[in-house]
Amino acid sequence: MFKTVRSERHFGSPDALPGPWELAWEAEHLEGASPQRILEWAVETYGNRLALSASFGGPEGMALIDMVSKITDEVTVLTIDTGFLFKETTEFREEFMRRYKLPLEVLRPKLTIEEQVERYGERMRTCNPDLCCQVRKIEPLERALAGYDAWMTGIRRDQTPQRANTRIVAWEERFGAAKFAPFASMTEEWVHEYVAEHNVPVNPLLKKGYKSIGCEPQTRPVSRDEDPRAGRWSGMEKTECGLHWVAGKAVRGDS
């Protein structure tokens, strides 16, 4: 059994988990700590009530899974299958997880693509934001996180302007869980160095000009001088699906 880690702050009863105020305090004291140390604190504090969210698109999620697997085998990997994913992504997901002992839970929307089109119109057949992201990504994750006290993600501050203020750990009111971002202060170069040093497999599409991989209808390869996120929702101002929040609110680039 994992124990709840105590700092100089007292969290209340012996079995109490840190609340929003305590998490804000911990975020300050974990700032500058290594991702491994942040993960150790998360695992020791939440045990198997901690989940890991990964899209199996970018290398960040793969590095995070590899790092967590060296600490525990009790953290469940949550991944969302929207029904619009690249075939390469779904095949890579199955191959990748055969290397690790962490349990995998594939989250799917309540509606099939055909049911979605019937309800919302033909435009929803091509993963049309923002409603599509709500139905096929956010709602499945909300349902899954009801069974956990905390979740972690591989997002970094330097990925998009909307993620620049990402905290190491914070309370996510909408999901009713603590959210960890162990790689928040890390760079893209650091991630690539980690996966190379530890021989961590990455999505094969990354070698074909894709730098940020999501749903196939809304993802394209990018040139060397383009921003990595330029290939997501190309031609739109949208850069976020809504899973990641800033100051407690969804950031929707096209609103």
Automatic annotation (TrEMBL):
The reply on keyword Cytoplasm is yes
Q: Name one GO biological process term.
A: sulfate assimilation, phosphoadenylyl sulfate reduction by phosphoadenylyl-sulfate reductase (thioredoxin)
Active site, per annotation: 241 (nucleophile)
Identify the residues that the record assigns to the Phosphoadenosine phosphosulphate reductase domain, covering every copy. 51-221
- GO cellular component assignments: cytoplasm
- What reaction is this protein's catalytic activity? [thioredoxin]-disulfide + sulfite + adenosine 3',5'-bisphosphate + 2 H(+) = [thioredoxin]-dithiol + 3'-phosphoadenylyl sulfate
Entry-linked SUPFAM superfamilies? Adenine nucleotide alpha hydrolases-like
Parts of the chain that traverse the membrane: none
Query: What are the protein's UniProt keywords?
Result: Cytoplasm, Oxidoreductase
A Gene Ontology molecular function term of the record:
phosphoadenylyl-sulfate reductase (thioredoxin) activity
Family as reported in the entry's similarity comment: Belongs to the PAPS reductase family. CysH subfamily.
Protein name (database record): Phosphoadenosine 5'-phosphosulfate reductase
Q: Which organism is it from?
A: uncultured Rubrobacteraceae bacterium
Gene encoding this chain?
cysH
